[in-house]
Structures are given as structure tokens and as C-alpha cells.
From TrEMBL:
Organism field: Capillimicrobium parvum
Residue ranges of coiled coil: none
Start and end residues of each ArsA/GET3 Anion-transporting ATPase-like domain: 11-289
Alphabetized PANTHER family for the sequence: ANION TRANSPORTER ATPASE-RELATED, ARSENICAL PUMP-DRIVING ATPASE ARSENITE-TRANSLOCATING ATPASE
Pfam family, one: ArsA_ATPase
InterPro entries tied to this protein: ArsA/GET3_ATPase-like, ATPase_ArsA/GET3, P-loop_NTPase
Signal peptide (UniProt feature, chain positions): none
GO molecular function, one term: ATP hydrolysis activity
The protein's name in its UniProt record: ArsA/GET3 Anion-transporting ATPase-like domain-containing protein
Length: 371
């Protein structure tokens, strides 16, 4: 079995799922496999743990795509005939870039970026990695510089955070509180708010020396000029996610919690009418060769190894068998709940994937031995 038929003709591949299930490794192996088939591919990760950089043998990755030298793969059983680019998302930097792109002129851009309120708030907003990740994806797609983009999504426990990111940002920008700041309260509210806030802000200014009221006024006035741009960007991002050339791959492991999240995320994809491309289950313990009962293993090995050693071997065998049975049951449930009859199964490999050799092994399971 190969992933190739499921991603044929796709321009954007989104690898989604809970944290710690191997999404970054899967994304890197997918991108590497496509680059080995002559495509120009960029893989985007938000993983701050440097797994992508380490597995590709790079010292560091920045907020712009960096070409991976094909020579790094020489002698590892794979030849890169296309181009493989990689980047690690910097949420704050990406959000600043977005402000710069949407600002009508340099004066408006500088007013926002240099504003103290923005500098504090942007960290919190950019901390919503879901929005900045897809904002970067949208930017790269519009550039037309790559044949395929592979996105390693944030390790969010709530899949809705990713799917709802455009709506949540525009809801914040169009919210009542923001409108009050932009247009000002009226009537009695204006008198109460005006008197109360002026007292508070004047005290703050005397104590801290910071003119917070002026900073707030400048910030919200400048932000108001960007609202239309944010709305258009959010609409563009939603259209990209629903595009027929986009596909979502759900990555999971057989453990209980990731399985629950994978099922939940698949349901949300269907509800949002977003394109589901397939299920990838990492770290599966194969059941082949584990049919015998542990007692039979003891009986068979006692003559050759002695009773004590045979019982220890059987205990290890029993643990492996229990894991295989758990994984078999988990995969059956995933098939039933998600409706993917043939998920791609990647067996538990010996140790973490932290180099090109490890990526090549994952790639072989994704694309098949003929790939």
C-alpha cells in the first residue's frame, strides 16, 4: 500500500492530529518522498523541538523556506530529483509580516508594529499558532513558488482551534468591545466609561509614566484600517482549506487518547466539508507471529533455555502480544469510526526518528517498497 494515490494532484497536504504522534516526522517523510519524485516541495512545521531540522541534518530552520541540500541524502537509499525546502514557523514573526502586508502604507504599518499595546497583544494573538500556521500556508500557496506544500499542524488538543482559526480572529476583530474602542461609546455609557477610564488612565500615567490611553487610541485606530484586509485573508484561508487541491491526512498512534482525537477531528472535517485524504497510524505493534499463548512459549523454550529464562522470554512475549492486541483493536475502531478501510500503518521503529536514515525508513512505509 502507498500514500501516493491519496495525494496525487494535491497542492496542499495538511497533516493533522494530536501532539506526540509523529506528525512532524510523517510530514518530513512525505515531503522528502515527493521531492524524490521530482516535485518542488516545502514542508512547514511549528514544532519548536527541532525534530524537522534534526531529521534533515540541518543546524537550524527559520521563518522562510530553506533549500535542503540534496547531497545530504546521498548514500541513504534515496535520491532527491526535485527540491526539498523546509521552514520552522515563528508565530510572532509571521503575524508581524501579516500586519506589514495588510497595512495600507508604511506609516500605518509602523504605527501598529511600534505600538506598545500591539507588542504585548501580538504575542498572545500570534500564540494562537493555528492562525499563523495557516496564514503562512496561504502566503506560500499564493507565491506559486512550490508544487506541493506540506503543513505539520500545531499539536493542539482541540482540533477546532485549527479549523476555526480564521473565524476566531475575525470574530475578535469585529467584536463589540473592539467596535466600542474604534467608534467610542455613546450616551450615558460614554459619560460613565469616559469618566471612569480617564481617572484610571491618569493614575496609571502618573504612577508608571506610560500614557496607556494614547497607546490604546493609536493602536485601535491603526488596527481599524486593517480590518478589511484581515477579513479578506480569513476568507482566502478558508477557501484554500476547502479547495479540491487540498487534502487533510489524519496522523495518530494506537494509544487511547490520540485515537479519540483522531475520531473527533475526522468528524469535524466532515462537518466542515473539508477534504479528508486518509488516516496514518504510527508506531503500530505488528500482530504477525504473536498467535501462540504465552504458556505455549514457555513449554517450547524450557528445554532449550531452562525454565527461568523461558519464563522471562514469555513475559516479554506476553507484553508484545498485549500491545499488538490493543493496536489491532484501536485500528479496527479507527476504521469503523472514520470510515477509512485501509489506513496506512507504520510499525513501531527502533527508537525515535532523528536523522535521514530514520526518515527514509518512514518514507518506505508511506510510499511502499516500490516507491
Amino acid at each position: 500500500m502507498s500514500i501516493e494515490p491519496r495525494i496525487a494532484g494535491k497542492r496542499v497536504i495538511v497533516c493533522a492530529g494530536s501532539g506526540g504522534v509523529g506528525k512532524t516526522t510523517t510530514s518530513a517523510a512525505l515531503a522528502m518522498g515527493l521531492a524524490a519524485r521530482g516535485r518542488k516541495v516545502a514542508v512547514v512545521t511549528i514544532d519548536p523541538a527541532r525534530r524537522l531540522a534534526d531529521s534533515l541534518g540541518l543546524d537550524e530552520l527559520g521563518n522562510e523556506p530553506r533549500l535542503v541540500d540534496p547531497a545530504r541524502f546521498a548514500g541513504h537509499g534515496i535520491e532527491i530529483t526535485g527540491e526539498l525546502w523546509a521552514m520552522m514557523l515563528d508565530p510572532k514573526h509571521t503575524f508581524d509580516d501579516l500586519i506589514a502586508q495588510l497595512a495600507p502604507d508604511e506609516k500605518a504599518r509602523d504605527e501598529v508594529l511600534e505600538n506598545r499595546i500591539y507588542q504585548e497583544l501580538s504575542g498572545a494573538v500570534a500564540g494562537s499558532q493555528e492562525f499563523t500556521a495557516i496564514a503562512k500556508l496561504y502566503e506560500l500557496d499564493r507565491s506559486g513558488a512550490f508544487d506541493v506544500l506540506v503543513l505539520d499542524t500545531p499539536p493542539s488538543r482541540n482540533a477546532l482551534d485549527f479549523l476555526d482559526a480564521p473565524d476566531r480572529l475575525t470574530s475578535f476583530l469585529e467584536g463589540r468591545a473592539l467596535r466600542v474602542f474604534l467608534t467610542g461609546p455613546t450616551g450615558l455609557a460614554a459619560k460613565v466609561v469616559g469618566r471612569g477610564t480617564s481617572v484610571v488612565f491618569s493614575v496609571l500615567k502618573r504612577v508608571t509614566g506610560v500614557d496607556l490611553l494614547t497607546d490604546l487610541s493609536v493602536f485601535f485606530r491603526a488596527l481599524g484600517g486593517l480590518l478589511d484586509g484581515f477579513r479578506e485573508r480569513a476568507a482566502g484561508v478558508k477557501a484554500l482549506l476547502a479547495d479540491p487541491a487540498t487534502t487533510f491526512l489524519i496522523v495518530t498512534s494506537p494509544e487511547r487518547e490520540p485515537v479519540e482525537e483522531a475520531i473527533f477531528f475526522a468528524a469535524k472535517l466532515a462537518e466542515a466539508h473539508l477534504p479528508f485524504g486518509g488516516l496514518i497510524v504510527n508506531r503500530v505493534t505488528p500482530a504477525e507471529g504473536l498467535d501462540a499463548e504465552p504458556e505455549a512459549v514457555v513449554a517450547e523454550l524450557t528445554g532449550e533455555l531452562g525454565a527461568d529464562l523461558a519464563r522471562k522470554v514469555a513475559a516479554t512475549y506476553r507484553d508484545a502480544r498485549a500491545l499488538a492486541q490493543r493496536d489491532t483493536a484501536a485500528i479496527a475502531r479507527l476504521r469503523r469510526e472514520i470510515g477509512d478501510e485501509q489506513p496506512l500503518l507504520i510499525p513501531q521503529l527502533g527508537g525515535d526518528v532523528h536523522d535521514v536514515d530514520g526518515l527514509v525508513r518512514v518514507h518506505e512505509h508511506l510510499f511502499g517498497p516500490a516507491g
